[in-house]
Amino acid sequence: MPIVLHCHIGIGPPVTGMALVAKDNFSARYDLDRKKGVFSRPDHGLYGHSYVGKILVFKTAKGGVASAWMLREMMECGIAPKALIFDTVNPIVAQGAAFANLTLVDRFLDGAVDALIRTGDTLDIDPDKGTVVVMNRDRETTP
Amino acid sequence: MLNTTNKTTSSFRIDDEENAMLAGELGPARQWAIQHQIFVGQFFDAEDLVRVGQAHIMADTEATGEAGVRFVESLAAMPLVDRHVRIPTITDPRGIDFDAYKRLKQSQGMVEVETRLIKAFEALGVMMTNTCINYQTIMPAVQGEHMAFGDTGVVIYSNAVLGARSNFEGGPSALAAGLTGRTPRYGYHLDGHRVGTEHFSLSWQPRDLSDWGALGGIVGKKTDSYWSVPVLSGLQRVPNSDEMKHFGAALASFGSVAMFHIPGITPEAPELRDAFGGKTPLPPIEISPSDLAEFYGVYAARGEKVDVVVFAAPQLSLVEMATVADLLDRKNVHPETTLIAVTSPEIKSAADRMKITSRIENAGGLVLSGVCFYQSYAREMAEANGWKRLMTNSAKLVNILGGYGYVPTLATMERCIGSAVTGRIS
After folding, report:
1. What's the gap in Å between the CA of B38 and the closest CA on chain A?
2. I want to staple B166 with a disulfide (CB 3.0 to 4.6 A). Which of A103, B149, B359, B424 is the partner?
3. Tell me, what CATH number does A11's domain have?
4. Among the listed ranges A34-43, B212-221, B264-273, which one has the minimum average pLDDT value?
């Protein structure tokens, strides 16, 4: 049985994709090279990784207000993540996801996202239902 | 162009005028705006909208990209009655200073996109104040006044120091607030979110603006959430506006924090207990001198060549501009180092009149107006000018610029200017 995680009702369309998990926080302005599609902040846990087409999993959003614009530009240029998952998001990234129609969910009933989701997991996100299904694992294999 | 696919539900209360906006009776711009607001409000469990006094839009073109510019242009193409903002709506710093872009090696393409966006905002009736220090220069908020402010530094200063009520409003949401005159009532519009969640005590006193920024950075790293409200005790004097500005900007930048209390100083916490909603204060976490030394240590780089010295983030007050000029008196900036001081158009005008600008420029410095360094295509400027080693007294700036390819050093304004003169990090 896949693992079904429950979260707050989210933003954007349902998506399926591969997770990239960090214990760090997230800001499009602070952390990304938005032309190359990689994490560019040297002290970020995902430094050098491509974020394009991935479901990014973080503790929270941080930093300035620029992400509200940047997510839409990233979507239109085809260098966006597939979705964003947080323990708790801040208004800027939520507003940006709404403006960009980018899938975003947060506030999980099951615990901390970096403990629930691993890099490489295949996730199925349904923002309207408030669920994230970990497709490739079941409860028994979860430490 | 307008995305009107967001859903709304009947649990959200709206009045007759809001209902008319939602139905499109006041035009497609206001319809998009209120749909966006209700959608975001519902995501954060808001139950209604609250009327706001001002909106403040962050929309530098490096952030908006072409997609954002086209979006604002699509609103600007609508009839005046449909597109004009309903409340005073002002702007955060832009990306281009038209008097300085050639010297900074910014491209003609950047100038063209900037020009397009300014034209579009002006068509909406937006006032191009181009400042992140509107609370020092335009019209400060009043205690209890609801606002839709962009720029995290503006929000945290207005909430904490002035007692106003605003969430972080990204550019699209602030623009929506300008069009509707409202914003979703969640987060810092509500009493329940303005109560202290952590308590920090100081065993030392900040001496310089860079110390205030470092203190904000230290607290921000320890809180690290938009929903945290740190309470700071142990200060032995009342800080001035520039000190609160640097503290708040760094706290917001490092921690995504939008509110704090300093008992006996900020208006919603006359006493320590008030900062915690009248309940027993939480036990304090001490911030020690070693925390400060460790913070500076992350950005230390003595002896190395410095490419660019920047005073910005937030824009400088008139007092800071005068201090830069005083410290540069009878000195010259090293020919292989660029010194930049960034301020708002209002302060620039005053600095010109008082010959502060000419004193900085005669020493070899460059004064920019209406922009901020990190909002001005910082990555492209670094590549075009060969800048790598940057020095600043802004903790917010060192936090941001690591991701833009710079190696930043944090130091006092005095040390920054000394280094700009010798060309080496002192």
Report:
1. 11
2. B149
3. 3.50.30.10
4. A34-43
Confidence of residue A140 (pLDDT cuts 50, 70, 90): low
pLDDT at residue B168, rounded to an integer: 97
**How far does the CA of residue B30 sit from the closest CA of chain A (Å)?**
15
Shortest distance between the Cα of A74 and any Cα of chain B, in A, equals 9
Q: B378-392, pLDDT tens digit by residue?
A: 999 999 999 999 999
In a domain, A142, yes or no: no
User: What pLDDT score does B4 carry?
Assistant: 42
Whole-prediction pTM value? Answer: 0.94
Interface of A with B in 111-140 (CB under 8 A): none
Q: Is the pLDDT of residue A63 over 90?
A: no
pLDDT score, position B7: 45
- Angle at alpha carbon of residue B328, lines to B322 and B332, rounded to 5°: 150
The range of the structural domain enclosing residue A80 comes to 3-137
When divided into structural domains, chain B yields a total of: 3
CA distance B29 to chain A (A): 14
Looking at the fold, whether B314 and B275 belong to one and the same domain comes out as no
Beta bridge pairs of residue B89 = B55
Q: What is the ipTM of this complex?
A: 0.93
Q: Which residue has the tokens 């240029």?
A: A77
* Beta-bridge partner residues of A56: A20, A84
Domains contained in chain A, number: 1
Nearest to A66 among B63, B256, B379 (CB): B63
Show residues of chain B in contact with A96, CB under 8 Å.
170, 172
**Tens digit of each residue's pLDDT (9 = 90 or more) over B243-254:** 999 999 999 999
B65 and A72 in contact by Cβ < 8 A? yes
Q: Report which of residues A25 and B281 the model is more confident about.
A: B281
pLDDT at residue B403 in the model: 77
Mean pLDDT confidence for B71-96? 97
Among residues B94, B58, B88, B133, which one has the least CA distance to residue B346? B133
Of A30, A31, A95, the CB nearest to B40: A95
pLDDT beyond 60 at B175: yes
Instruction: Spell out which residues of chain B touch residue A63, defining contact as CB-CB under 8 Å.
Output: 152, 253, 256, 399-400
Could you list the residue range(s) of the whole structural domain that residue B138 is in?
A: 16-189
Q: Does residue B1 form part of some domain?
A: no
Residue B263, preceding peptide bond in cis (omega within 30° of 0): no
Q: Per the CB < 8 Å rule, is B171 touching A42?
A: no
Residue B7 forms part of a structural domain = no
* Residues on chain B touching A71 (C-beta within 8 angstroms): none
